[in-house]
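Researcher: Last one for today. Full complex below.
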Amino acid sequence: MAEELATIAEVRSALAEAGYLADESASLVSFLAVRLGKPVLVEGPAGVGKTELAKALARATGRKLIRLQCYEGLDEAKALYEWNYRKQLLRIQVEASEAGWERVQEDIFSEDFLLTRPLLEAIAHPEPVVLLIDEIDKTDQEFEAMLLEVLSDFQVSIPELGVVEAKSRPLVLLTSNNSRELTEALKRRCLYLWLDYPDVERELEIVRLHSPELPEELARKLVEIVHMVRSLDLKKPPSIAESVDWARALLLLGADDIDRSVLERTMSIIVKHRSDLEVVADRVGVKLTDGLVGRQQAG
Amino acid sequence: MASSGGSRPAEGALYGGFPEPGPPGFAARVLEFAEELRREGMSVGTSELLDAFSALEHVSWTRREDFREALAATLAKSQEDRRVFELLFDRFFFRAVERRAVERGLRERRFEGAGRLDFDSLRDRVRQAIRAGGDGELQDLARLAIAAFDRQGEGSGVIGVDVQRIRRALGLKGQREAAPLPDPDSVPQERLKQFERHLRRELERRLIERTRSLPPAKPLNELDRALPTGAMQDLAAVHRVVAQLKRRLATRGHEQRGRRSGAAVDVRRTMRASLETGGVPLRLKHRPRRPRRPELYVLCDVSTSVTSASVFFLSVLHALHDNFRKLRSFVFVERISEVTEVFERERSFEAVSRAIAADAGVADVSGYTDYGRVWLEFLGKVIDDLDPRSTVIVLGDARTNGREPHAAAFARIAEHAGRMFWMNPEPRLYWNYGDSVMSAYAPFCDGVFECWTTKQLETFVNALADLRVPSRA
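Model: Here's the assembly. Have a good evening.
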């Protein structure tokens, strides 16, 4: 539980046990989030493990993970709560004839008829949970404004029921792909963490963690190629998840080296646009035939 | 600790003097630091500061990295802010340490063996350390290099110049990306920068020791603040801003919803509503504002006078094409040519620029821009398609090379189009100097912007996405 995570090093090792290799800043910010009970805003390019961080935190702290996936047009009914009007209607039909209206009205606006959505669920949960609000930048500003009440006071007001206060403080992570500037008000309430692509050594560790059977030398070459690919101008640079997938694919294929033909057969795993594929085949494939990648590493 | 104030050396003023230390203590330092962040335009509010202090309660201030991260997580809330934060953090705490050192009269012990050192023996060690060494080793070697440099007696006294002289004396070269075979003598660019930073720091430290005064803290310049980017990363940044533009256009509509909309009264609906009240129009019905779905016409100058800017502009065009369907683009030098099709056909930016260079056919004889002629040709081509819903954007420097500007033709385009914007890659200061005729065109535009960075592009994006059709003067 959270009480065990008393130092930054402990957070780090707990995350590592949960299968997430956090860097300095990620573990420090997670530590502060646990200690201060403040939400964390995690930004960074797609596929650097923002969502994964939340999942790992849930595993490391032994808390339940509640996830709210944001999308354009997400509203309160989908994020907070909704009245289960079908059930209410049935209730009215059953009881209206016998009981008075007053009683029915009291009845149908009780918790039995409330459909809790992720935000309310996270707050009303008896145990502390990890709440992941994914891709907050996809929603519009009104939704952000609504989040403010939840994030700063950890309460939700329902007109018919009153204010639902948090029984325990959830650990909140918001992720954003930076596709839109978030409001100052939201940022002000959060700790900020920028996750970037890891350096070669750390990504190597991550790849090795996920496919330990892959020989170290091959894994290193793989990571170096992925870094080279990222430095090109691509529509969608490969993410960490994609290098992990690639490592698995190489294992399945039984490849013991990455040469030009292996790259060309398997690069659709790390690059997903047709024009990107051409660029990679062009620029990286050539280097592989010359054996440059291997030599750089040796020298 | 303010005792040193009286013994302030006379030459101090020349180098920016020796600022008053202010109230002692930890909190005061953090507040000073926040003040400095604010001066650089970061919005650090009281609530952020409170967060920072409560975060610092949980983090040991003796571990520099943790201390820095804790402050950054609570104070810097975007990547740009983080960049400014890093620069200021280094500078602020460097200065704080140096101030105390001067106050207490601490001096560093010079490296004793400097007399025997020369660059030849250092050269290999520095190169090794830059490739593989740790930060501490780099710092030590920077000191050694400065000591050796002192002995040669070529110091200019200007820190920036000295750093470059030392780098050259050590024969350090940064790796070039495009090099087919890596030069065995070259070192990774990033690490070289790090070494140079150490050199700069050490030289600064010695200057402070010598003059017993702190140089004035200068505001960061644009170059420092900008995120380190290559040409290709810029392209990505442009794409991001344009994607944002698209989003803004999409979400602006929501923002407007529900607010009492514009001034235009819908007569028909008002009359209809008046039936309820016996024909007395008690309630005015307004016409709802429709979100603008702009039809974009983009004209891009690709002549030599804007060579550096035209790459930027072409990438803007490229990104626009990714995001807008109703977009027609044109490039021009002496003549104008529509390239909408090229952008639709080719996906990658390089292919697009190649195709445009090869067969747009816009340079006639001289290769000089002829804005007047471009307007006339543009009018001839699209005048029938322009309507009040269309937006025309011109990317160019308005340098006509002494030819007739044909402002009347430009005015006619502006008349037919709903909105007209001009993005000029030159700083405002240079407009209307020489052969720039910006003032001839500006009155017909709804907005003129200087635009050569993605930041400025964003300013423009905000203007473009504004739903309000500005009344033209």
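Residues 294-299 of chain A have pLDDT under 50 and may be disordered. Residues 52 and 180 of chain A are 22 Å apart (CA to CA).
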